[in-house]
Amino acid sequence: TMGSPSDEPERYADEVQHTVTVASFYMSPTEVSQAQYEAVMGENQSENQGDDLPVENITWYDAIEYCNALSEAEGLTPCYTVSGDTVTWDRSANGYRLPTEAEWEYAARANTDTPFSFGNYVNDENANCYNAYGYNNNASGQWVNGYLEHTVSVDSYLTNGNGLYNMHGNVAEWVWDWYGSYSEETSLNPTGMQAGNYKIVRGGGWNDFPKHIRSAYRSAYPADVPLYSIGIRLARNAVDMTGTVTSENHANADSRNKTLIVYFSQT
Question: Which residues pair with 87 in a beta bridge?
Fold first, then answer.
């Protein structure tokens, strides 16, 4: 079941629950480290520098290029063909790729239905996030003041039930899908919309509140803009797949030249 129940504290309206089935897939136990990224791409633009820290400050398109380059380096068939802002995914390819949003949530939940794979609350030992205010009005019964203000090693904290590190916090992770409303119909291997303005990032980062590192939380960001709290985690097919999926960037299609800037504060 993807999404969050209506009574989950601090949830958002775009997390409508629905049933999804995903084919078996492989997922890296860690986020891609800076050493791994630099070994393939020859550069490291991360703001928090360190070989064992997750690579960040990369765009969605950088992530696509890395997947292809790593696949080629290991003699695998690249998954993606890039033409300008349009990316076509060959689902039959055996190379490295980004997980879909559905795959990511399935992997993150690890057969749990709580807000986090480790339970209902976030303590400092659970994840790297802006935990100064706790979750659900600090309903865990203790006042937590954790905020490291930086990333940590990709193998930090305990793994979830699927053996994956840092699915909550540290860096948010690019996935394949464009941001859009869920279909509430039961679906098989969904890949989201063909076109959109913002790509989905999942899991939240070191600078996010606990509510933003929940298993169901959906964040969105421009595909061609890097951010110091967004990185990647790789996936691969575990069974034969067929077909192609196209991703078209419509972020620059709007000809209007006015921008609304909303200022807000948190007390």
Answer: 82, 247
